[in-house]
Amino acid sequence: MMIPNKHGGIPRNFLGLPDEVSSPETSRVWVLPIPYEATTTYGAGTRFGPDAILSASQQVELYDPRRKTEPAMELGIATLPSLAISSRSPDEMMQWIRETVEEIFSGTSQPDLLVVLGGEHSISGGIASGLRHLWADKPWVAVQIDAHADLRDQFEESRFNHACAGRRIAEHAPLFQIGIRNLAREEAEFLASNPPVVTVFAEDVHRGQYLADLAKFVQDKYVYWTIDLDGFDPSIMPSVGTPEPDGLLWHDFLAVLDTISRHAAAVPVLDVVELAPIPGLHAPDFLVAKLIYLTATTLLLGPADPRPDSSCQR
Ligand SMILES: [Mn+2]
User: N or C of the chain: less Cβ packing under 10 Å?
Assistant: First the structure.
């Protein structure tokens, strides 16, 4: 299913960039594929997610008409070798991801933004646990786009099931959830116990009134941002294991990105998880590739449109 990139070769890195702007030493963005799939409960295939994203990224235009530049050439985007952990147990996987994240942010050359490509959502627990050590002296929060709250303490005998991702993150940092529309009784009871979790349900996303709360939540904080792609509406993102109607549309996502980029101190880590590509259906894969490029550009270079954010003037 490999599509030749714009240089005519087989895709090796995100966006098919030339060497001078895709080595870790010269890149502000590092992309880390983690094709981990062990606990997916419904539709499977997230282990194919990273390859599909890298393939689709070869078709993304580097030029940004609003900026009148090619941001990738300015930023540098390096694609690291995949973490090949599909055969590991959830506990081993968590440990390995934690150590990898700690290593990446302890080296002499480090990214300004690490983008992790899933794989299933359980990998986020490992990332959050690494960040707890790295950011022990920093005020940091997590933002989650998702259809599911993922707040179960355990599921199918594992605390590192993908249905527990939010709960594992909230053990380390306050969590702001966007687009939730599927909640188990156990999760509702957990939310009623006053945990450090703000849950914005899908109907409130459509009303748009949560953006001022999001702005306050991330204000001057370090942000770990996790995007479970089933947070999007299945009409634009059918390639997920557990699709739910009434999700975010592209413009909803742009509003979240704009708010975070204007208010957070920094967003050093983003993960994009749960893509289970459907053979022959390229639009969802392309959506993810474009989302990552646009997000990296906006977070590191600022919004293309420098108008002040209206969401904090309400
Ligand atoms: Mn989900």
Answer: C
